[in-house]
């Protein structure tokens, strides 16, 4: 199985984030991907490719031009955490860099630093290479990528996410056939939902109930898409502490919906924060459960592009990724 990794992801490495009314250690460090790559590199099932190239962010195809323009043009020697947000969507753009970011940012856990834009360019190229590979070979592929992406919408970003990797892949694969996205991160992929809410790209998400978990304002069962997208957005919120068997039952229901859609390609937004030991999750799913999730998804029998999202139990992330990828390799 081919594994694609952005070579310079480690250059985006904030020290802190502001969360739950306090300054805490940044929860999405380079170690997340480094541990994954270290583990997969010693397993003969996987061929790890480090992607060194970069692509202009303006070519992404899913995000608001003005937001991406700010990413491209920010010049800073520190990590910026905006403290003022454009909640009324005023069009006037301020001159101060942090305030520019605040026009589109929805939380205080997503700092923008000196090398963030360069890392995003490298990540964008990594997604493009993975898409080209799966289109050419129809083989399953895994993208060990950071920053993650599913909280980045058309004109907003947050939740450690700046650009939506799964959505960027989907718009490219859609030129070849029908695309479904299955999001199994602990947190709802509000960005992916936003991008495809009026589109016939099927988005199905299993996640913690947003009444009690981030991102709070998106992810409810009644959100089913609009216009051409009506019926193509399926949210399956689950209670805190959901057990393995209950999760697997919900997953089977999600996979029935996807199977009925008959996609040419499936994009799996993979959040390992569903693991029982994750500091940002509450689900009770052990490593065998992760493997069973992989088995159930693999049974669909369509090429799967797996994009890394969350997963913050860093000491166990290598074992966890092997468990869920094994059925695909």
UniProtKB/TrEMBL annotation:
Keywords: Hydrolase, Metal-binding, Zinc. It comes from candidate division TA06 bacterium. InterPro entries: HDACs (IPR000286), His_deacetylse_dom (IPR023801), His_deacetylse_dom_sf (IPR037138), Ureohydrolase_dom_sf (IPR023696). Its cofactor is Zn(2+). Belongs to the histone deacetylase family. Residues 28-325 form the Histone deacetylase domain. The keyword Hydrolase applies. GO terms for biological process: epigenetic regulation of gene expression. This is Histone deacetylase domain-containing protein. One of its GO terms (molecular function) is hydrolase activity.
């Amino acid at each position: 199985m081919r594994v694609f990794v952005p070579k310079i992801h480690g250059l985006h490495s904030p020290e802190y984030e502001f969360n739950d009314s306090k300054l805490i250690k940044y929860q999405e460090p380079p170690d997340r991907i480094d541990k994954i790559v270290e583990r997969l590199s010693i397993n003969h099932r996987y061929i790890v490719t480090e992607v060194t190239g970069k692509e202009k962010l303006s070519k992404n195809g899913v995000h608001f031009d003005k937001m991406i323009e700010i990413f491209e043009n920010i010049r800073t020697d520190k990590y910026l955490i905006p403290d003022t947000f454009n909640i009324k969507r005023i069009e006037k753009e301020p001159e101060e860099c942090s305030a520019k970011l605040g026009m589109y940012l929805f939380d205080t856990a997503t700092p923008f630093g000196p090398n963030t834009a360069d890392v995003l360019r490298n990540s964008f190229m990594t997604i493009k290479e993975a898409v080209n590979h799966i289109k050419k070979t129809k083989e399953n592929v895994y993208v060990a990528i950071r920053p993650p992406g599913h909280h980045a919408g058309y004109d907003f970003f947050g939740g450690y996410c700046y650009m939506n990797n799964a959505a960027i892949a989907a718009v490219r694969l859609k030129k070849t056939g029908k695309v479904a996205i299955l999001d199994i991160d602990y947190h709802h992929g509000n960005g992916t939902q936003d991008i495809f809410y009026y589109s016939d790209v099927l988005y199905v998400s299993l996640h913690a109930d947003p009444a009690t978990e981030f991102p709070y304002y998106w992810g409810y069962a009644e959100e089913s898409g609009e216009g051409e997208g009506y019926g193509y957005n399926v949210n399956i919120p689950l209670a805190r502490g959901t057990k393995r068997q209950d999760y697997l039952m919900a997953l089977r229901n999600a996979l029935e919906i996807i199977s009925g859609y008959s996609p040419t390609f499936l994009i799996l937004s993979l959040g390992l924060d569903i693991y029982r030991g994750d500091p940002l999750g509450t689900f009770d799913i052990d490593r065998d459960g992760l493997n069973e999730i992989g088995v159930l998804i693999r049974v669909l029998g369509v090429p799967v592009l797996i994009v890394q999202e969350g997963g913050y139990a860093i000491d166990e992330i290598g074992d966890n990724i092997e468990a869920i990828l094994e059925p695909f390799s």
